[in-house]
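Final report, Chapter 2: Outcomes

The project's central promise was a pipeline that accepts a single protein chain and returns its three-dimensional structure in a standardized token representation, suitable for archiving and comparison. That pipeline is now operational. To close this chapter, we reproduce one record exactly as it appears in the project archive, with the input sequence first and the structure output second.
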Amino acid sequence: MSQKNRRALIRAEIVSNTGIDEELIHRLVHAFYARVREDSILAPIFDSHVDDWGAHLENMCAFWSSVALLTGRYHGRPMEKHLPLPIDAHHFDRWLALLEDTARQVCGPAAADHFIERARRIAESLEMGIATQAGVLLGKGERYISNDLKGARVGRIAEVYRGESGE
């Protein structure tokens, strides 16, 4: 069986098990970013880096289509986009909290779980990449905290904290 056929079977199973389709992805992405744009922690980051919200939302729909349904619609490089941003574990925690809450409001339980599980992996990967770029090697369960978010590069002064309670 070809990789294309395997992806089609996996996608059909995801749709069957979760009800996720392009319309649901559109609703989730638009509802989530409406909340992001009003959030006191995340809005300043997005406001300083997103010039065209229509294009950004379209790109994020393609991204989540690729992540959730394996469609291959997204062709960007998320890590490269996030590395220069002044963000750390606190920003990722807030991003995840908003996404999880929005997914639970917009999606059925199986679809919400599907999006949330992938969002957690994405956030962990991006946080690890940002920490590494700042010269901090995170161990299992460690989080990246920057004490200097005003500089050009996150993490000139950085510490690592351990624990899942968000301490």
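Archive annotation: The beta strands are 142-146, 158-162.
This record, like all others produced under the grant, will remain available to the consortium after the project formally closes.
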